[in-house]
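User: I'm putting together a teaching handout on how multi-component assemblies are represented. Below are the sequence lines for each component of a complex, exactly as they appear in our records. Could you produce the 3D structure of the whole assembly as structure tokens, so the students can see both representations side by side? Please keep the chain order the same as the input.
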Amino acid sequence: MTGIGVGVGAGARGARRVAILGGGPAGLAAAQAALAAGARVTLLDEGGRLGGQYWRHHEQLTDRRLQHGWARFERLRGVLDRAEVHNGASVWSAEASDGTLRLRAVVGPADAAGRTALEVEADAVVVATGAHDLALPLPGWTLPGVTTAGAAQALAKRDGVTVGRRTVVSGAGPFLLPVAQSLAVAGSEVVGVHEASRLGGLAAGWLPRPWQLAGKAGELVEYVGALARHRIPYRVGSGVVRVLGTDRVEGVVIAALDADWRPVPGTEREVACDSVALGHGFTPRLEVAIALGAAIEGDRRGRFVVVDDAQRTSAAGVYAAGEITGIGGADAALAEGAVAGFMAAGGSLDDDRMRGPLAVRRRMRAFAARLERAHGIRPGWTSWLADDTVVCRCENVTRRTIADRADAPLRAMKLATRAGLGACQGRTCGRAVEAVVAAAGGAPEGFDRRPVLAPVRLGEVAAVGRGSDSGAVAVETAISTAGRGESAVAAAEPQ
Amino acid sequence: MIRITVDAEPLEGRDGQTIAGVLIGAGRTAWRTAQTGDRGVFCGIGVCHDCLVTVNGVEGVRACQREAVDGDRVEREVRA
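Assistant: Of course. Below is the structure of the complete assembly, with chains in the same order as your input.
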């Protein structure tokens, strides 16, 4: 990590200043490409160490068997000594004015008081903020012991722990496979992996044009091998539809699911376990891209940042790469990141160095489309919710409360029910709330528009205005010790 | 090894673990009181804010994001 200050980046004087948000595959590839094109690069990542979710790690605690493409990560990380890198950076403001893009962040241990303020000015920004798990609500899903699949993966890889001794993995998509492997390696028995999509849907998604799977197939075969070694059953067309327990997870109800993911009556069976990992796909982290004015497109299957062939968004100087442009996995993110970084630095698509990334990007876009076709969320899942099932975890808002207000405009529905107005600002429940409203006859839209990019302390934001002009502002600790009311700005207002 | 206290009770963890990692490693799955019952870690990557704890007197710290430091005082948060 280099010094903190107004982000001028490393590299030649007078070179284009490129700021990159996110230190996962897309952001790292963007940094490498932008450096190669001669830009001064500043990379901001909220994590304590680079790698994103894909290369989440800790030097001592991570079992190396759980890492994939590690050599690539080391190569990408290796060139960053020529960039200015800030780990532990929470970007809370992003704006464009007079052709300059300005990012404001606080830097330091997660949610600590007294983090350092950082302001970065850039000619171009590459937004590579990634995605997080989409875990659909179920009765009992707030019980301790239920986590997202991503949490199970992060805890296993980053901390070397598992939440339970007997875990059921349930959801949709190939990500369930490495999660099951990680749980097994980290010491939990995996009772079963339940894929909601049925064989017909999977075949329709994956069997045609198998050559498009080149590069991915090997990884999938490796995971399937790991499941076999650990004797983990993999069942399609089924899923956890209810979690059992009073104070913590004691078991689950698993049902067969029809093609729309509705539980098939009479197929329910109870399975004893003490933890559940849920993952029904991913949802992009769009906040920064939206704040910078990038157009978003899509429907309730997912909304993503619109980009052209050069990974340019609709906002001047703003590029996007990785999962925020479509869920396609690490290889797609690496390719898009390389294109975005190179173009943000003023490069050309005709450059020989772009040939490889462009070819991979073409192949991986086909992969992403097949991923959605085979594993995309089907609307019938809302039928496994009971009236009193909590949908918004932060504010404890039930399915019935949301459905009762389904005819109101989204803002009125949120104000009346408080769904999506808690600490996470609808990041966890947004897609689910929209589905519940839609199932009740409403037409929701816009849960991904959030006024605050990252939860930061009001005191830290306030201190920025009182800081010196140098850009490096030591935030006064005293301000941040105030009560709960200001512990997270994000909890304040609906949009 | 590192040592932290959780509601004044000492817990041992491995150096470098997050607070959530230390708690789970010690067999705990719940450490926040919400309206509908206890909560622990859910998203594990800093998005959901279900795992909030008070650390050394500072409220609203995501246990899944904060690396535990020897001597940290962690307290449960209660939300009515």
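A couple of points students might notice: DSSP finds 13 helices and 23 strands in chain A. The first strand of chain A starts at residue 17 and ends at 21.
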